[in-house]
């Protein structure tokens, strides 16, 4: 029985060999298929489109097949798609080129792809697809340990898990670009960034409160980040910068309190001797946030009255306690503006009481009048002596009252009559009397001079 089987298989082998030999003898000039160019190797980001190009010369009666190497799955034969994958297509240009198109590549598309021809022995070539995956931050279990909230002086541990190809690198930073403070064994280190998927904050302070960013990168765009909100809880605190404020009645006044609190507190304004204040047209209340845990409480009191003066309280209450600050508002007495008395109206002077400038010129004699109108060299000594004696008996007005003369030291007449004689009330009567006296004296001097000049005894000696 074994001999018969052996003989049968021997005959089969011989028959096949004879068939091949006969085929070679009948088709001695047949060309075998060959690849014109190698397949591409691709490294692309997830979501991109790629294609593999297989160019075969002398394909003849043979067929081209596409196979995924790692799974040994047949994807397509010639132009017929075998795999049930809507992201795969096969195209042929009608000559010698076949293409396998992969649309929107995913992580599981990574691997080797073969273009194979069913010759004996079969021939093939391989291309590789490397799919790079951008980083992704996993939402689950992203916070470990004490969590993102703690009492002041406690510890907070944040963890950020990420995936991607290649494996992402993670670092931390504050969203407002403030420095991250790492405290350990009494030492303090400040840094703009901290590397690693875990961030631990020990002995936390209220200044550590805020938003932190976990950033993952692997050189495959885009990089991703996730925000963590760190909360530090502490007892409320209030600071009052101006504890004494003064304002006048009828004005509007603003009083303020600086508050630090976490968690959020309820803020109240009240009078020391009364109930809590409610916002209305009299009391205008507002809050000005400063950062995550501090703000400014503002109270504007409008149209101040006497009853508004006194003490005011600003209060902050949360689950951890209460804090308050006090401000005293007092009245500000403004000085009265001085009143200016109106000057009395000046009474017009009577023109008859003060002589005019022309009349004064007539009253005041010129002091360069000579007896004969000449140089005086032809006078006798007796005539000169008599003139001197008469001048002593009747002195000219300029020697009696120099202030009434009409000339200054240069022989120029004074122009301002009121400045020399005074502009006070009642001076017009005195000026009139003095003017008549001067007129009488001037007439006497003029008459004496005329007699001296006309007398023959005063003529020049012959």
TrEMBL record:
Entry keyword annotation includes Ion transport: no
Segments forming domain Ig-like: 33-125, 135-225, 236-330
Organism for this UniProt entry: Cinara cedri
Pfam family, one: I-set
Compositionally biased region (Polar residues): 400-411
Protein name: Immunoglobulin subtype,Immunoglobulin-like domain,Immunoglobulin-like fold,Immunoglobulin V-set
Keywords: Cell membrane, Disulfide bond, Glycoprotein, Immunoglobulin domain, Membrane, Repeat, Signal
InterPro entries cross-referenced by the UniProt entry: Ig-like_dom, Ig-like_dom_sf, Ig-like_fold, Ig_I-set, Ig_sub, Ig_sub2, Ig_V-set, Neural/epithelial_adhesion
Disordered: annotated span: 335-430
